[in-house]
């Protein structure tokens, strides 16, 4: 894993945007895997700013999001559909029909899970997947204990994850209990992975990722088996590991 150490959240976002924009500018058809949450917000802002200033076009880009809550409508401000439209898609020139998220309101969830993985495969696989990391090491919504060979599936969210995400909802009770997420193997099939990590609340997770063993108890540890992972982490996230870098 290649680690790029940056000062703070702003620099992490800027560096990540540079990596993505560089690839997008090459102009080849490209499948970009995206995440939600607090971590990639600054990245999306930087992509929007670049699009407005420099006209970088996303007409040839198709996106696949990692996950979606079960039971939230698209127009619910807490749905990841809404988050992506509001944080990125509405502000760049990507055609709407080239932006995919798992459907958290599907009639048949097994079918939806299979369909999502099939779709990614049929369109050529993910070229670059952006990831954040949960304090418990989750990637996507793959909580500790998720088999490494898992494909897209339905998960029951851990209480710690619901609590971490409650900041976006009125009350903890409003946070959905289930989500649909790309599986670990779906993520590992990406040709390249860009993991963004910022803040001291992630320092423990970074320490486990860099120095712990590869184990399903810490889902992100699987990334050590991938041949093309870049981590962009800020000083606070690396505070527990700086000495040994
Ligand atoms: C969201 C996702 C999650 C988040 C993780 C960290 O699409 O995949 O794994 O990346 O929960 O969330 P933040 O960035 O809010 O700390």
Automatic annotation (TrEMBL):
Coiled-coil positions? none
Q: Which reaction does it catalyse?
A: alpha-D-glucosamine 6-phosphate + H2O = beta-D-fructose 6-phosphate + NH4(+)
State the pathway, as annotated in the record: Amino-sugar metabolism; N-acetylneuraminate degradation; D-fructose 6-phosphate from N-acetylneuraminate: step 5/5
**Keyword list, A-Z:** Carbohydrate metabolism, Hydrolase
Q: Which InterPro entries match?
A: Glc/Gal-6P_isomerase, Glucosamine6P_isomerase, Glucosamine6P_isomerase_CS, NagB/RpiA_transferase-like
Q: Where is the active site?
A: 67, 136, 138, 143
**Pfam families per record:** Glucosamine_iso
The record, for SUPFAM superfamilies, names: NagB/RpiA/CoA transferase-like
PANTHER family to which the protein is assigned, alphabetical: GLUCOSAMINE-6-PHOSPHATE ISOMERASE
Which HAMAP family does this entry report, sorted A to Z?
GlcN6P_deamin (MF_01241)
Q: Which NCBIfam families match?
A: nagB
The family this protein is said to belong to: Belongs to the glucosamine/galactosamine-6-phosphate isomerase family. NagB subfamily.
Q: What is this protein called?
A: Glucosamine-6-phosphate deaminase
What organism does the UniProt record list as the source? Ectobacillus funiculus
Query: Highest lineage ranks of the organism?
Result: Bacteria, Bacillati, Bacillota, Bacilli, Bacillales
Give the encoding gene's name. nagB
């Amino acid at each position: 894993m290649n680690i790029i150490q940056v000062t703070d959240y702003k620099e992490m976002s800027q560096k990540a945007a540079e990596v993505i924009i560089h690839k997008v500018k090459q102009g080849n058809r490209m499948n970009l895997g995206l995440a939600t949450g607090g971590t990639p917000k600054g990245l999306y802002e930087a992509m929007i700013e670049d699009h407005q200033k420099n006209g970088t076009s996303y007409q040839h880009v198709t996106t696949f999001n990692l996950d979606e809550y079960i039971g939230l409508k698209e127009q619910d401000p807490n749905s990841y559909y809404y988050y992506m439209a509001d944080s990125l898609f509405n502000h760049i020139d990507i055609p709407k029909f080239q932006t995919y998220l798992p459907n958290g309101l599907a009639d048949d969830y097994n079918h939806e899970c299979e369909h999502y993985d099939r779709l990614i495969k049929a369109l050529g696989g993910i070229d670059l997947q952006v990831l954040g990391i949960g304090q418990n090491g989750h990637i996507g919504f793959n909580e500790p204990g998720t088999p490494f060979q898992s494909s897209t599936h339905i998960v029951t969210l851990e209480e710690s994850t619901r609590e971490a995400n409650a900041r976006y909802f009125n009350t903890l009770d409003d946070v959905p209990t289930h989500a649909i997420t790309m599986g670990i193997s779906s993520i590992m099939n990406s040709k390249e992975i860009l993991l963004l990590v910022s803040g001291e609340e992630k320092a423990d997770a970074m320490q486990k990722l860099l120095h712990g063993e590869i184990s399903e108890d810490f889902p992100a540890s699987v990334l050590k088996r991938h041949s093309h992972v870049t981590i962009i982490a800020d000083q606070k996230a690396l505070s527990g590991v700086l000495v040994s870098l």
